[in-house]
Design goal:
Length: 91
């Protein structure tokens, strides 16, 4: 089943609201009062979770990223953007 969600990101003073619905993702600078989930930290910390496989708990323990709201949604969100397999040189 498709995902429908409103996810907020707070990077310093900047806030972004991501709306996911009908297989589409829209990002806008917006207030986070409608977000079901808010990530607060740096873009690098979010990338570490999404692309680097770093656990949200580990990032939180290091003080790099906090998660407010729907924890199950946060765990699902970080799996939505897998990187393609690495290409080995000479193959």
């Amino acid at each position: 089943e498709g995902l429908a969600a409103r996810i907020g990101f707070r990077f310093g003073a900047e806030t972004f609201l991501v709306r996911i619905a009908d297989g589409r993702l829209e990002v806008a600078r917006d207030q986070l009062d409608q977000a079901e989930l808010i990530f607060t930290g740096s873009a690098r910390a979010v990338a570490a979770a999404v692309y680097g496989g770093e656990s949200l708990d580990a990032l939180a323990a290091k003080g790099l990223l906090s998660v407010e709201g729907d924890r199950a949604l946060a765990e699902r969100f970080v799996t939505l953007f897998p990187l393609p397999p690495k290409v080995c040189p000479g193959s």
